[in-house]
Amino acid sequence: MKTIILGLFLFTVQVFFAQEYYHLDQEAITSEALGFSEPVKQVEVSYYKGDDSGYETTMVEVYFFDDNNRIVTKYMRIFGDYASETSHQYRYKDQKLDSLNTYASAASFNSKSQFKYKGDKIVGRTGYGVYTNYEDTYTYDSNNRLKQIKRVFPKGNSSESNYTYTNGELSLVEEISTDIKGHKDSTFYYYLDNKVVAKYNPVFNSIVFYDVNMANYTTNTVDKPLPLIERYLNIRKTGSREAIRKFMDESVGQAEIVKQNLASSANMKGDWLSRYQMTSNYGNEIKRYIFRKITYANGEVSGSTDFNYLFQHKTKGL
What we know:
The protein is mostly beta strands. Helices cover 10% and strands 51% of the residues. The chain has 3 helices and 19 strands. The protein has an 18-stranded antiparallel β-barrel. The chain is globular. The N and C termini lie close together (9 Å). 21% of the residues are buried. This is DUF4595 domain-containing protein.
């Protein structure tokens, strides 16, 4: 596996906004929660398909934040055969997220959700739309930590996420899906430092390992999956890239890379600006260039969404 880090500190300036869905969770609304080093005002992201013959834009994203460091708009436009536009509008009232509304070029995908509070804590959320109808209930433990989010749909099927904490830190979320006949399926998400590092699905006996030296891996039919995950978590705690690589080679075996940052550059603050990324869907590999422009709250601008030929040249052959 070829992986390089490009030390391109050419500018004075994940976050990868097309975030993978994990489970029911609270909305991340501040730039800090979204992974930035400091408050931001606006973020622009452009995705390209490119090779020696040229490049074309496949998607753009723009994010706007208010003076309180909270996201107010997420806009996405996809180009090509499946072109679409989507805008997510965050609305606040009394310094709390009051509603989240989605407007899409295909009107049937428009949706609205309204939040309910008890004091400063979210206790409910109601979703409205052609394909978006649900009622969420949030519950908390005796330490005021999120304990469960349960989502119930009109037909009676439901989904819930149950949170487990170890030594005061989130360590596990079990997502339970219940169909209209009452059949339940669970998926387990393992956390370290408030980040998902592994997912286990007992139905398929599959494990996804996240952020393993800039890549995500998946593997099926693993013998003794829970002890394997426990070993992986203990190794991740050491922070040793070499130990993680050795674990994957010797213990996991024929794991498939499902997403990998083949190359990445960041600014002096640690926020990434350029990525050359590969995703694999059933063996079909797709490579793309991603460039990001960040406007910080203090007015400082870092990066560009223009196609970067120098970055492309440095990543050639990966």
